[in-house]
Each structure stands twice: as structure tokens, then as C-alpha cells.
Amino acid sequence: MSVSGSPTTPITDRSTSLMDNLLGLLRIRVKKGVNLAVRDVRSSDPYVVVKMGRQKLKTRVIKKDVNPEWNEDLTLSITDPSLPIKLTVYDHDTFSKDDKMGDAEFDIKTYIEALKMNLAELPSGTIISKVQPSRNNCLAEESTIHWADGKVVQDICLRLRNVECGEVEIQLQWIDLPGSRGL
């Protein structure tokens, strides 16, 4: 008897179980950083790491910029939408360990609820839902979930924790995957 995911399990068994559990993909567009902390002499070389469960993705490094514009898409496989997503900003250093420049956490529960609504007839730009900043989230301002060009999109501005200053702007978009369980 082999344990799923062990070296003795055939690869087809693993991929079948992943597709059975996969709800879809979440595209996180990491747009930009605003007023990030200085970690080098006069600036920083920031990059973003996004983690959810065992998944870990990162953006490219932008040299000497505390207001970087990444406009980079990172895609997570979603099997459990109740898991929080953690975003951490680091300063890339060539000769030493990269410095942490703050972190933030957000959940996608409200976004997933909006995805489950039947919204096909809505005009583009319609606001579906709003999430208010609170002590229980890292929102810097109200986050809107809206209908744009046939898709449910959420714009989020996260205030970084464990640092003196900085915000990161991201956008969420869902990708349905043929063969996945779906929502």
C-alpha cells in the first residue's frame, strides 16, 4: 500500500487527484509598490513573494526603486479557498541575506462568493461587492469586487505589516480550468 504522492505512486494518480480537488486558478496581478521602506543606502531592490499553502511564487527584482511597478501575473492553483494568501516584500541583496520589507495577508472568501453569483448580464464596471479595511485584514482602503469585460475582478491595496511604511497594489482574477472541479 503506497501513500499518495510518494515516489512509488504513479504520476497519473497524483495528477488525477489534483484535478479532482482543483477549483480553478487565481491570477494575482502584482501591480506596484507604494512608498516601500528603504533597506539599502538610499533605496531598495524590491520583489514580492506570494504564498498560499505549499505554493510559493515571486516577482522579478526591480532595482533601486521604493515605488516599483511590477505589473506581473502570478497564478495560484486553488484547492482550498479558505486558506489565507500571504504576500511578503523583500529587498534583494547580492552579498547578504535579502531583507524583509513587510508583509500582508488577505483572504479570497468574499471574492469566491462573488464568483459563484450568476453575473453574465451585468454591464462592465458594475460593483458586485466591497470589502472594508479592518483590524482583521491588511487592506489600506476599501477593496471593490467588480464585473469587468465578462470577468469578476477584485482590486486590493494592502498595507504592509512589520515595517515602517509601504503598500502593495494587486488585482485578482479567476481562471476556470477545463477538467477541474470548479466552484
From TrEMBL:
Keywords: Abscisic acid signaling pathway, Calcium, Cell membrane, GTPase activation, Lipid-binding, Membrane, Metal-binding, Nucleus. InterPro entries: C2_dom, C2_domain_sf, CAR1-11. Pfam families: C2. It comes from the Eukaryota. Signal peptide: none annotated. PROSITE patterns: C2. The keyword Nucleus applies. GO terms for cellular component: nucleus; plasma membrane. It is found in: Cell membrane; Nucleus. Residues 7-121 form the C2 domain. GO terms for biological process: abscisic acid-activated signaling pathway. SMART domains: C2 (SM00239). Its main location: membrane. This is C2 calcium-dependent membrane targeting.
